[in-house]
Design a protein that fits this description.
homodimer; alpha+beta; 5-stranded antiparallel beta sheet; 6-stranded antiparallel beta sheet
Chain lengths: 204, 204
């Protein structure tokens, strides 16, 4: 089963609030991730389809970019330092995060939630499971549109996204890969403007 | 085989330049890592001894500290957000790195090295192998004494450590764990002052 086998090229697809999706891309295909309502963070992972142990790695990307955040023209690389995605367009102010782990059940427990809470980490595993794939570890995600202001002394905070409705980012596959997007369900800190929303994407 | 079974409490042990070591610690034990010659980076990992899939995670630590770098009094947490180490003393200026991946064969290849070059990533696997352990993935390391100056606009650079000979950091085990130290063999960028050197450690 392939979660995006039924998607037509260029078709606008809804990713419901709090949910994740795995998208298989051939080398050269571009995915546009649209922040439909403007303030939604999208946790993003990419895995080499031929070897899921090779994955997009923020700690390797930063050493390559010599910056904490990516910009248009940057290549995103794997834990084997090979290009996996290219950031080809960004109509948002370019504020994305590479520093923070995906939310997970332990995060919500520590924030005082009792019982189940959706999480990006769970969305990763569920999205991959839906196309018959399993990964054991969770790479540090590229958190699209996530606003983590950084002081020169190294302090960071969680703030509302600065993106606006309809702004988008485009990522081009540099190898055959599995992309996972999670519309972050965080509703306790400000990262999604306190209200998780749908986003949309299209594959071109 | 246990690499540190023969080490006496408080004994000063040499970690040769360019090499790594795995040290098993019981909860409450403290390891002192001494920058003997002042400018040596030590890549550091910690794994839950009962489950090597649980490891110290920089991306989880940053979300907990709300800072990019740790300070005395901080707890270092795992990918399950549980305390694994505590930073209990630091006589250096406190400049350490959490942003950059361990050096590895692909890093040196991209820096123009032909043939073999020692690397922290290889040191991790060799050190664990010496005590009969295997991990499949390399967590983003805590790079002790590594100086990666950060501009407010997110630019980073690789600079010489600001630590001085004999300065040290002490880490206390918050669970039974395997600590891996690698005296970084990087001699192409400035991170070790261009000259990889021995460091020393003691377990208390």
């Amino acid at each position: 089963m392939n979660a995006n086998s039924a998607i037509q090229p260029g078709e606008l697809v809804r990713l419901p609030a709090r949910r994740g999706v795995a998208i298989t891309l051939e080398r050269g295909q571009v995915v546009r991730v649209i922040n439909t309502y403007g303030k939604q963070v999208v946790d993003t992972w990419a895995f080499n389809r031929a070897d899921l142990h090779e994955a997009m790695s923020m700690e390797h990307c930063r050493a390559s970019w010599l910056r904490v955040n990516p910009r248009v023209g940057d290549t995103l690389i794997t834990n084997r330092r090979r290009p996996i995605l290219a950031l080809v367009e960004d109509t948002s102010p370019g504020v994305h995060d590479t520093l923070i782990a995906a939310c997970d059940p332990s995060r919500y427990q520590q924030l005082g939630v009792s019982g189940h809470h959706d999480s990006c980490n769970e969305n990763l595993f569920l999205a991959l499971d839906a196309i018959g794939l399993v990964v054991e570890e969770t790479p540090s995600p590229l958190n699209l549109f996530m606003n983590v202001p950084l002081s020169r002394d190294g302090r960071i905070e969680f703030a509302e996204p600065v993106s606006e409705p309809g702004q988008y980012i485009e990522l081009r596959a540099e190898m055959a890969l599995v992309l996972v997007l999670s519309a972050c369900p965080q509703d306790i800190t400000a990262v999604n403007g306190m209200k998780p929303m749908d986003v949309h994407y299209k594959v071109m």
